[in-house]
Amino acid sequence: MAASRPARVALLEQLQADGVTHMFGNPGTVEQGFLDELRSFPELQYVLALQEAAVVGMADGYARTTRKPAVMQLHSGVGLGNGIGMLYQAMRGHAPLVVLVGESGLAYDSMDAQMAADLVGMAEPVTKWATRVVDPQSVLRVVRRAMKVAATAPYGPVLVVLPADVMDENTEEPVVPTSYLDTASVPSAAAVGQAAQLLAGARRPMVIAGDGVHFSGAQPELARLAERWGAEVWGADWAEVNLPADHPAYHGQLGHMFGAASRLTTTQADAVLVVGTYVLPEVYPALEGVFAPGAKVVHIDLDTGAIAKNFPVDLGLVADPKQTLGLLTNALEGVMSPQDQARAAERIEVWGREKAAAHAEAVAKDVQDAETRPLSMALFARELARLLPDDSVVFDEALTSSPALGRYLPPNVPGNWMSTRGGSLGVGIPGAIGAKLARPDVTVFGFTGDGGSMYTPQALWTAARYDIAAKFVICNNGRYHLLDQNIAEYWRSQGITAHDFPDLFDLSRPAIDFVRLAGSMGVRAVRVEKAQEVVPAIVDALAHAGPFLIDLVIDRDI
């Protein structure tokens, strides 16, 4: 047994033993005991944020970048409540977060005390696991379990409730590093052979892939399989680089909103390989008919809940994507006929030519539009791509501006691009801050909209306080433009004649002064309204040693 000391001290010793260097949080009275002890742990930096959604967003960006558990502290029921929406975002994106939430104590359970709440019950829908420590002799055991659960595929947030009176009790529990799991499991040779037999003869093969590929590091294996099989690769629950956007097989992402739209694509395949996602993560998913009649479906994932979650499959393999995709490609090469292999190679070649031609056409249109239309994301992204250092990181919450951004800064390098997922607005600014903390030696640009930015503008203050030199771009079109697009699709689906968009989607009255807002929190900022202002703004942002914000006014007359 270790020497006796308060559990609040032992907690920090455990985090230290696990190599935790940052704790993101917003302090409260019921956590003040262990937070006060941070003075004795200078290697554990507390990153202060002014609102809990920003706390979670920063930890989310940090965890996604490091692919290790990020620790955060929230304050009782009210603080956890403020962070719930962003925790949902983290859960959907499989971010390994460990959320420590304080409460007044076990002694007050019967008192209906101020700020008291069923914290575990609140958190269960948005976490992999949620629990409450009730014994000071088990604090470290619970924290280690939380770290392990968060970092085991499928990754995700976990919550540990820390009652103050438990944390003030002494414990002799020893500190030992958390035991993490090796999940690089492989299926049997017979199962791989069966998968190859199911898929080999396809004339219209398709891969539906998600972020489980990224977490496994299986990007090269997915590329090789797509090339050998001659398969279209479509993304679902895709917010990381699972296949370079420039790869000929990559056809884009399936819609996250309407299953009827995705079904038009997925029913074209006569054989489907699903890997690292489930079918299908949409707001209005199709309830039937996602695959063509008779199409063979094979699903590979470490997440047992994802396989055959909504629709049956012909074969499900609970296995590591990286290991399994390599084995499956070898098996396919052994059973595909020479004619099938030739057709696969031809498809890849054709798609490469078509993709290059489409890109050239889009760029030409951007150049033409720049002469006649208001300032656009395309013009800004073209200049940014020209000036941005190699190995820069992009955190993309640009939403309706994302296609133009990706045209010039394509998400090709794993770890250098990540996007929002989960539907909770506001992750762009804090996510970029977390990414910059994790990778301080590279340039990090975070993109968000004027609407999304206002969910977590407090994060700018944190960037200034700790001199976190992330760069931010507000795609300021004066609207919730994504809602314009979604309601237009709704009108079409319901046979409603198109009409004026609802006035409540408009954000221009009153106009938000993002330059003054950023400046009030210590972040240098500039407003860009004209094409000739773009390059000077980017140059200033890159040259500035601290955080910098560009208010990019796009797609409207000034």
From TrEMBL:
Keywords: Thiamine pyrophosphate. Residues 405-551 form the Thiamine pyrophosphate enzyme TPP-binding domain. GO terms for molecular function: acetolactate synthase activity; flavin adenine dinucleotide binding; magnesium ion binding; thiamine pyrophosphate binding. InterPro entries: DHS-like_NAD/FAD-binding_dom, THDP-binding, Thiamin_PyroP_enz_cen_dom, Thiamin_PyroP_enz_TPP-bd_dom, TPP-bd_CS, TPP_enz, TPP_enzyme_TPP-bd. Residues 194-326 form the Thiamine pyrophosphate enzyme central domain. GO terms for biological process: isoleucine biosynthetic process; L-valine biosynthetic process. Residues 10-115 form the Thiamine pyrophosphate enzyme N-terminal TPP-binding domain. Its cofactor is thiamine diphosphate. It holds the Pfam family TPP_enzyme_N. GO terms for cellular component: acetolactate synthase complex. SUPFAM superfamilies: DHS-like NAD/FAD-binding domain, Thiamin diphosphate-binding fold (THDP-binding). The keyword Flavoprotein does not apply. PANTHER family: ACETOLACTATE SYNTHASE CATALYTIC SUBUNIT, MITOCHONDRIAL (PTHR18968:SF13), THIAMINE PYROPHOSPHATE ENZYMES (PTHR18968). Belongs to the TPP enzyme family. This is Thiamine pyrophosphate-binding protein. It comes from Actinacidiphila cocklensis.
